[in-house]
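Running this now, will post back.
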Amino acid sequence: MRPSENNVEFPKRVFRRGEYILIDIDIDENLGKKNRTMEFYLMQYINYKSKESCFYRLEKSKTSEIQNFSLKTEDFQYKQSFLVPSNIPSTFEFKEDILTVSYVLKVYVNGKKFKFPIVIGDRYQQ
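Update: finished.
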């Protein structure tokens, strides 16, 4: 890592409902801020397409914020975890994208955005 970068990592991208997502964050030591801000969002995207003649037409698209929280820290290295809710549907794709459910973890460190597509479900193996 270069000395003037923020870095966000986590060891895997496939999670079961009820499992913790563990996130490692390295914050640029050159920023000199005492209060470093971090925001975490677990986003759900649902898309439904219906077929009209030989074309697909998007009928409905929904984005939901499943979980979010923010914090301030004086640390340059930080570890955070949060629980994947047990009452959300698994990542899902049905026949030629007619119905899809997908998830993205968004992390903001001092305003810089990191996006990670993740898979949630009991039937997925890493």
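The domain at 7-120 is CATH 2.60.40.840 (Immunoglobulin-like). More later if anyone needs it.
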